[in-house]
């Protein structure tokens, strides 16, 4: 029965145009890390042979702590070049350690590449006989636009209808962190969160709404201060049943 | 430059008013709005763009991403151009925008321009900070230039305290008003997105010069007006 429901959920997903980190299937995934920091673990929620897209939530890490340490000098050198190219003096007091700080900050902003869903969910899936909507809203989200490397910030609202299993509430926020702390596109981020919850819990339905302000539109380009971008992904009964969707959207607005 | 005319070696490069300079030189340094001619022209011609693009390409690789994938293919160029835009204040000077826009009006009361949106880059982490600027002046001045003055100094690698002071000193040097006050309230992404991660924190800095510094009643009137 669960497989059937999962199959139904899979059919409802939009055609596979992006995978794992948002790479289109025909594009090359990033090279594997040179030295894994932990031995590879058996994924906890293995589904056997699932499609490449739907395995996104249990993808292997592309980066480790050792990678971060190894790459820090080259990142810092790149930032020194940037400072010089902008006409600044990297030797002045205020900028002396900036390349290292900026490199470390950028690694923090993309720490989602070091984490996988299976790391985070652990034992936080519980059997509960609860079949009403569960909503966690106003989750602060900070991400980096992959087109301009400029932040976009906003709030994520997640709702799901459990099917005999519920997730620890903070894990929803952790899922948001993993996918948002990457170079992202808001549409892809929304879908990745929804797919991750679907794969982990196999709920009756999932809805994710993200409302964000893009600094690349506010600070540069069209410079529209008050514009917000809203994206949503509705899966399962949230997609099929208008009343469920309406209940979710009403509750997150209140 | 003024410091060269005074026979001193210019600070290196002196357009940002570095805090390690002594106070008299701070004022002179802050008055020197022209960056080195070469870097200004080169940046204007886009001469530094390839170096910036290469730097961003190596950043993408260093972060473990695949720069060849569709979404990132043109990102080095876009990010380089975005960074140039966000630091375009280095290419602009007060003289560029003044252009005889100072008028002698018999107006002795306060002029306050508030809620000027400000976007800048923290020079320590290269992460945006943004907020609102309030400028008070006791002299008539074409109001639309206040946002432009804010733009010149905010579109640089900045520290909020220095930004506030630079705006105030620039207005003082250019217009010589009876008093100037600048208040900036901003949110720092380096505190919100990383580090302490305090979402709702705001930083407020102010610089009061002239009669606003000396006369408490004038200062109180100004602060009351902006509270509303």
TrEMBL record, chain A:
<dbReference type="InterPro" id="IPR043133">
    <property type="entry name" value="GTP-CH-I_C/QueF"/>
</dbReference>
<keyword id="KW-0862">Zinc</keyword>
<dbReference type="InterPro" id="IPR001474">
    <property type="entry name" value="GTP_CycHdrlase_I"/>
</dbReference>
<dbReference type="GO" id="GO:0005737">
    <property type="term" value="C:cytoplasm"/>
</dbReference>
<keyword id="KW-0378">Hydrolase</keyword>
<keyword id="KW-0547">Nucleotide-binding</keyword>
<dbReference type="InterPro" id="IPR018234">
    <property type="entry name" value="GTP_CycHdrlase_I_CS"/>
</dbReference>
<dbReference type="GO" id="GO:0006729">
    <property type="term" value="P:tetrahydrobiopterin biosynthetic process"/>
</dbReference>
<feature type="compositionally biased region" description="Basic and acidic residues">
    <location>
        <begin position="56"/>
        <end position="65"/>
    </location>
</feature>
<comment type="similarity">
    <text>Belongs to the GTP cyclohydrolase I family.</text>
</comment>
<dbReference type="GO" id="GO:0003934">
    <property type="term" value="F:GTP cyclohydrolase I activity"/>
</dbReference>
<dbReference type="GO" id="GO:0005525">
    <property type="term" value="F:GTP binding"/>
</dbReference>
<dbReference type="Pfam" id="PF01227">
    <property type="entry name" value="GTP_cyclohydroI"/>
</dbReference>
<dbReference type="InterPro" id="IPR043134">
    <property type="entry name" value="GTP-CH-I_N"/>
</dbReference>
<protein>
    <recommendedName>
        <fullName>GTP cyclohydrolase 1</fullName>
        <ecNumber>3.5.4.16</ecNumber>
    </recommendedName>
</protein>
<feature type="domain" description="GTP cyclohydrolase I">
    <location>
        <begin position="77"/>
        <end position="253"/>
    </location>
</feature>
<dbReference type="InterPro" id="IPR020602">
    <property type="entry name" value="GTP_CycHdrlase_I_dom"/>
</dbReference>
<feature type="region of interest" description="Disordered">
    <location>
        <begin position="1"/>
        <end position="71"/>
    </location>
</feature>
<dbReference type="GO" id="GO:0046654">
    <property type="term" value="P:tetrahydrofolate biosynthetic process"/>
</dbReference>
<dbReference type="GO" id="GO:0008270">
    <property type="term" value="F:zinc ion binding"/>
</dbReference>
<keyword id="KW-0963">Cytoplasm</keyword>
<comment type="pathway">
    <text>Cofactor biosynthesis; 7,8-dihydroneopterin triphosphate biosynthesis; 7,8-dihydroneopterin triphosphate from GTP: step 1/1.</text>
</comment>
From TrEMBL, chain B:
<dbReference type="InterPro" id="IPR018234">
    <property type="entry name" value="GTP_CycHdrlase_I_CS"/>
</dbReference>
<dbReference type="InterPro" id="IPR043133">
    <property type="entry name" value="GTP-CH-I_C/QueF"/>
</dbReference>
<dbReference type="InterPro" id="IPR043134">
    <property type="entry name" value="GTP-CH-I_N"/>
</dbReference>
<comment type="pathway">
    <text>Cofactor biosynthesis; 7,8-dihydroneopterin triphosphate biosynthesis; 7,8-dihydroneopterin triphosphate from GTP: step 1/1.</text>
</comment>
<keyword id="KW-0547">Nucleotide-binding</keyword>
<dbReference type="InterPro" id="IPR020602">
    <property type="entry name" value="GTP_CycHdrlase_I_dom"/>
</dbReference>
<dbReference type="GO" id="GO:0005737">
    <property type="term" value="C:cytoplasm"/>
</dbReference>
<keyword id="KW-0783">Tetrahydrobiopterin biosynthesis</keyword>
<dbReference type="GO" id="GO:0003934">
    <property type="term" value="F:GTP cyclohydrolase I activity"/>
</dbReference>
<dbReference type="GO" id="GO:0046654">
    <property type="term" value="P:tetrahydrofolate biosynthetic process"/>
</dbReference>
<dbReference type="InterPro" id="IPR001474">
    <property type="entry name" value="GTP_CycHdrlase_I"/>
</dbReference>
<dbReference type="GO" id="GO:0005525">
    <property type="term" value="F:GTP binding"/>
</dbReference>
<comment type="similarity">
    <text>Belongs to the GTP cyclohydrolase I family.</text>
</comment>
<dbReference type="GO" id="GO:0008270">
    <property type="term" value="F:zinc ion binding"/>
</dbReference>
<protein>
    <recommendedName>
        <fullName>GTP cyclohydrolase 1</fullName>
        <ecNumber>3.5.4.16</ecNumber>
    </recommendedName>
</protein>
<dbReference type="GO" id="GO:0006729">
    <property type="term" value="P:tetrahydrobiopterin biosynthetic process"/>
</dbReference>
<keyword id="KW-0342">GTP-binding</keyword>
<keyword id="KW-0378">Hydrolase</keyword>
<feature type="domain" description="GTP cyclohydrolase I">
    <location>
        <begin position="53"/>
        <end position="226"/>
    </location>
</feature>
<dbReference type="Pfam" id="PF01227">
    <property type="entry name" value="GTP_cyclohydroI"/>
</dbReference>
């Amino acid at each position: 029965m669960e497989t059937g429901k999962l199959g139904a959920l899979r059919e409802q997903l939009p055609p596979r145009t992006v995978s794992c980190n948002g790479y289109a299937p025909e594009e090359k995934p990033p090279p594997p890390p040179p030295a894994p920091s932990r031995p590879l673990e058996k994924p906890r929620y293995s589904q056997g042979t699932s499609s490449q897209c739907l395995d996104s939530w249990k993808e292997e890490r592309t980066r480790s702590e050792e990678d971060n340490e190894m790459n820090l000098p080259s990142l810092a050198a790149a930032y020194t070049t940037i400072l010089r190219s902008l006409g600044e003096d990297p030797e002045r007091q205020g900028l002396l350690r900036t390349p290292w700080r900026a490199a470390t900050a950028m690694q923090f902003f993309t720490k989602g590449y070091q984490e996988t869903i299976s790391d985070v969910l652990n034992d936080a899936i519980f059997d509960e006989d609860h079949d009403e909507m569960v909503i966690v809203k106003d989750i602060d989200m900070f991400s980096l636009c992959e087109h301009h490397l400029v932040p976009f910030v906003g709030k994520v609202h997640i709702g799901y209808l459990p099917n005999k299993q519920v997730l620890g509430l903070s894990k929803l926020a952790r899922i948001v962190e993993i996918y948002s702390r990457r170079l992202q596109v808001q549409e892809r981020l929304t879908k990745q969160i929804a797919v991750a919850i679907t794969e982990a819990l196999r709920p009756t339905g999932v809805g994710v709404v993200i409302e964000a302000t893009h600094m690349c539109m506010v600070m540069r380009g069209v410079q529209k201060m008050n514009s917000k971008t809203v994206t949503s992904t509705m899966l399962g009964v949230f997609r099929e049943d208008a009343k469920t969707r309406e209940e979710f959207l009403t509750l997150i607005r209140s | 430059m003024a410091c060269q005319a005074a026979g001193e070696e210019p600070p290196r490069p002196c357009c940002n008013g570095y805090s390690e300079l002594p106070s008299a030189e701070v004022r002179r340094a802050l008055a020197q709005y022209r960056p080195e001619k070469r870097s200004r022209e080169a940046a204007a011609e886009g001469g530094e763009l390839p170096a910036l693009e290469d730097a961003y390409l190596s950043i993408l690789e260093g972060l473990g991403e695949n720069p060849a994938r569709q979404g990132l293919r043109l990102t080095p160029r876009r990010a380089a151009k975005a960074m140039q835009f966000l630091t375009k204040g280095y290419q602009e000077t007060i003289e560029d925008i003044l252009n005889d826009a100072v008028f002698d009006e018999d107006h002795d009361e306060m002029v306050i321009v508030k809620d000027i949106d400000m976007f800048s880059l923290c020079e320590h982490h290269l992460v945006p900070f943004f907020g609102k600027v309030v400028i008070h002046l006791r002299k008539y001045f074409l109001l639309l230039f206040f946002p432009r003055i804010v733009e010149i100094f905010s579109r640089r690698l900045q520290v909020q305290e220095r930004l506030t002071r630079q705006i105030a000193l620039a207005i003082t040097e250019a217009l010589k008003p009876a008093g100037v006050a600048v208040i900036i309230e901003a949110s720092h992404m380096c505190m919100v997105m990383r580090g302490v991660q305090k979402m709702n924190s705001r930083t407020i800095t102010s610089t009061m010069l002239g009669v606003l510094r000396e006369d408490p009643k004038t200062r109180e009137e100004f602060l009351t007006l902006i509270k509303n």
